[in-house]
Design a protein that fits this description.
Largest sheet: 6 strands, mixed
Number of helices: 3
Structural class: mainly beta
Radius of gyration: 36 Å
Shape: elongated
Strand content: 35-45%
Helix content: 10-25%
Number of strands: 8
Amino acid sequence: MKRNIIINSLLFIISLLITGCASFVPPEPDDPYFAPKIPDTPMQQKASQGSLFSSSNNMLLYEDRKATQVGDIITIILTETTDASKKADTDTKKESDVSLPDPLIAGRNYTFNSGQSSFEMDIGLETEFKGEAESKQSNKLNGTISVTVQQVLPNGNLIVRGEKWLTLNQGDEFIRLSGLLRPQDITSDNTAPSNRLANARIQYSGTGQVADANRQGWLARFFNSPWWPF
């Protein structure tokens, strides 16, 4: 009976793992969430007034043309660098010694069993523990990606989002980015550093043979997961 329960439990865990692997859908291009935002109302063309200056063209003499409207394009410069290091060293030691001699009463040590046995006792205890741990991680991402303005908030901040796909001979590589950007952080050539994005979501990964080769199998992932009790 107990053996059947163990076998059924293992079969249930394996079926969950197979179902999870079968339901995994790799990312694909043209995701509607990262699609460019098109303004709802087209820009109205004003009639020409017959002069050299036309109000239908944005000829800004004293300011730069910045992307501040829905659908405008902003180039994000990826300058992400992280470096984390942690080290812990613990060393504890404890020693205890308890001694109980024969009782001394009226200047005489008392024993029992005709002097063959004694009340004297000696207890010693020693405990020592030493632990050491070290962790270090470093990441770096450089590049550029052009995104579009998805929404203009009431305070003027911009919600930007976009993706870039590169098709290579062994698969695809993609960059997806979304975040919140201030108009003040946009330069005159409509670029902004990625470290100025609030609530940034940056994803750099790939699909294809190379990505599959670097991915652990479902059984190996199970043994490395918290579900494995040993």
